[in-house]
Amino acid sequence: MATPENIKNSQRRSLRKKPFSLPSQLLLLYLEEAIDSQEMELRRESMTTAWRNCGVCKKEISLGRTYQKCSISTCRKNVFCSVDCWSIHDSVMGHKSAYAEEETAPSRVENSSNDKPRRRIVVSGKSPSPSNSELPEDVLIVVSKLKNYVKAKSSMNTSGDVSEELSKYVRLLVNQAIDNAREEGRKTVMAKDFKNLSL
After folding, report:
1. For residues 164 and 140, is the Cβ–Cβ distance under 8 A?
2. What are the backbone dihedrals phi and psi of residue 72, each rounded to the nearest 5 degrees, phi first?
3. Distance (Å, rounded) from C-alpha 173 to C-alpha 139?
4. Does one domain contain both 159 and 177?
5. Any residues with CB less than 8 A from the CB of 5 and at least 6 apart, and which?
6. By residue range, what is the domain housing residue 67?
7. Is the CA virtual torsion 23, 25, 26, 32 positive or negative?
8. Same domain, 23 and 56
9. pLDDT recorded at residue 154
10. Three-class SS of 159-177
11. Are residues 99 and 57 in the same domain?
12. What is the maximum alpha-carbon separation in the chain?
């Protein structure tokens, strides 16, 4: 691979093989400056072409270059420069039926997160609530837990229709708590919304 220093040295050697006159020496100085600027450009380019590092050998993966990704969803953040590096990762992680997926790095560096437009969440005053006929009328009480509590507290049995009646009371309390949360501009019902409620 041609590194900037190899290019520089080989070009200078070829220029110094013949004796030069004064104009040629000026040309030689000019060429040495051009070689130095070419070396600087190559270094700058190598700094900007690195996209990410391999997850195993830590070698740089250049922009636009193909790389390997693990097919397992929890390992998708890792990238690998070759299938050999991916197989080392696979043997360490012990995946069953995993494979390497070949992908291509982006051709240019993406903007940082600060440059991206910010998402704005707009909350309307009231969201449309379903009518009472659309609301589910399921039992909201765990019947077995209720029966165990009544038995432990009073050694009494519990009728089957108690859970339905208690569910009506729970719905009333929950509706009031929803209203309290909505008044405070929240979309989450919290325990503090149930304080000081009346039936």
Report:
1. no
2. -75, 130
3. 15
4. yes
5. 39
6. 50-104
7. positive
8. no
9. 94
10. CCCHHHHHHHHHHHHHHHH
11. yes
12. 118
Cα angle: 136, vertex 138, 144; to 5 degrees: 160
Name the token pair of 108. Answer: 């240019």
Measured between alpha carbons, how far is residue 143 from residues 46, 166, 172, 174 in Å? 69, 10, 19, 19
Closest CA to 79 of 109, 93, 59, 108: 59
Contacting residues for 72 by C-beta, under 8 A, at least 6 apart: 93, 95, 98
Tell me how many domains the chain contains: 3
Give the model's pLDDT for residue 156: 93
The answer on 148 and 190 residing in a single domain is yes
Please tell me the distance from the alpha carbon of residue 86 to that of residue 142, in angstroms, as a whole number.
50
Please name every residue paired with 62 in a beta bridge, in sequence order, or none if there are none.
50
In a domain, 126, yes or no: no
Fill in the amino acid letter for 184: E
State how far the Cα of 54 lies from the Cα of 67, in Å rounded to an integer.
9
Euclidean distance between CA atoms 86 and 78, whole angstroms: 9
Identify the CA nearest to 126 among candidates 192, 185, 189: 185
Per-block mean pLDDT, blocks of 10 residues, the chain (199 long): 57 54 62 67 63 88 89 87 89 86 82 61 63 77 90 92 89 91 91 84
Domain assignment of residue 133, yes or no? no
Q: What is the pTM of this model?
A: 0.36
Provide the terminal-to-terminal Cα distance of the chain, rounded to the nearest Å. 82
In a domain, 119, yes or no: no
Answer whether 51's CB lies under 8 Å from 62's CB.
yes
